[in-house]
Automatic annotation (TrEMBL):
Protein name: Polyphosphate glucokinase
GO MF annotations in UniProt: kinase activity
Family matches, as Pfam families: ROK
Disordered: annotated span: 252-289
Species annotation: Deinococcus koreensis
Keywords associated with the record: Kinase, Transferase
């Protein structure tokens, strides 16, 4: 068993927990500290240090960030303080905590976790995990392997910036009911479907807690759409998985073989247009070898 501390930097809270990266299980209660006002780098690093000290777990630590993270550097900050842009965050967090810290985009972390231990476990092919919150995060996963930093929330749909128009924040801002919001999300998913032909969309973020409110109103043409299963643990789990992979000998690479009890991934699914496609999509997923 390898146990790694995973930390998820969110808009309102920074949460951490030790994760068994072989099973995806949290090994103790999450510990949450409110995100400091303005979420400036030094303040956030201070909170991450507090979490690291709180758990006092030896070894590497995985941390999520809501922007592009390339080779440890932060390259965008759509919804957080712009002072993050250009920072060598792996080095800065490692310096602030004295621990081997590895950053990963928040949606990529959620995607890794969902693909291995959640709604995408055992699914072959192209899986697109989308998180709807303040922004829209995306993770593109092919046969369990992540293509990082896809940033599909920043696509333009004619004259509309996807994240500004269809995020959960947009739903609240524009006072949309769930059906009206689902209509916007459907246009967005249909566009993604045209570009990527995913076998499966996994819809995460806070909205995944009550999928019955919006999932039946989603329409896509060919793909299966299911809600995320790991909810607010996904970022923590994915961050720990990534840190485990970054440290040779700590853990195996991600393959979607789960020891988490399987939940019915398609308990609620979005209506699809073609019956033939529906039949194909409802075939049971073949477990990976
Ligand atoms: C950022 C992404 C992030 C998403 C969700 C977007 O604004 O550009 O990097 O994954 O928000 O937090």
């Amino acid at each position: 068993m390898s146990v790694i501390l995973g930390i998820d930097i969110g808009g309102s809270g920074i949460k951490g927990a030790p994760v068994d990266t072989d099973t995806g299980q949290l090994l103790s209660e999450r510990y949450r500290i409110p995100t400091p006002e303005g979420a400036r780098p030094a303040d956030v690093q201070g909170v991450v240090r507090q979490l690291v000290d709180h758990f006092a777990l030896p070894g590497a630590v995985g941390v999520t960030f809501p922007g592009i993270v390339q080779h440890g550097h932060i390259l965008s900050a759509a919804n957080v303080d712009k002072a993050w842009i250009g920072l060598d965050a792996d080095a800065a967090f490692t310096g602030a905590t004295g621990r081997d810290i590895h950053l990963i985009n928040d949606a990529d972390a959620a995607g890794l976790a969902e693909a291995k231990f959640g709604a995408g476990a055992g699914v072959k092919g192209t899986v697109l995990v989308l998180t709807f919150g303040t922004g829209i995060g995306s993770a593109l996963i092919l046969d369990g392997v992540l293509v990082p930093n896809t940033e599909l929330g920043h696509l333009w749909l004619r004259d509309k910036h996807a994240e500004t128009w269809a995020s959960d924040r947009a739903r609240e801002r524009d006072d949309l009911n769930w059906k009206q919001w689902a209509k916007r999300v459907s246009s967005y998913l249909q566009h993604l479907e045209l570009l990527f032909s995913p076998d499966l969309f996994i819809i995460g973020g806070g909205v995944s807690k009550r999928p019955e409110r919006w999932l039946p109103a989603l329409t896509v043409s060919r793909s299966r759409v299911v809600p995320a299963q790991l909810q607010n643990e996904a970022g923590i789990i994915g961050a720990a998985m990534m840190a485990a992979q970054a440290v040779p000998g700590v853990a195996e690479p991600a393959v979607p073989a789960s020891s988490r009890p399987a939940k019915p991934a398609a308990a609620v699914t979005a209506p699809m247009k073609s019956a033939a496609v529906k039949k194909a999509a409802s075939k049971p997923a073949t477990p990976r070898k």
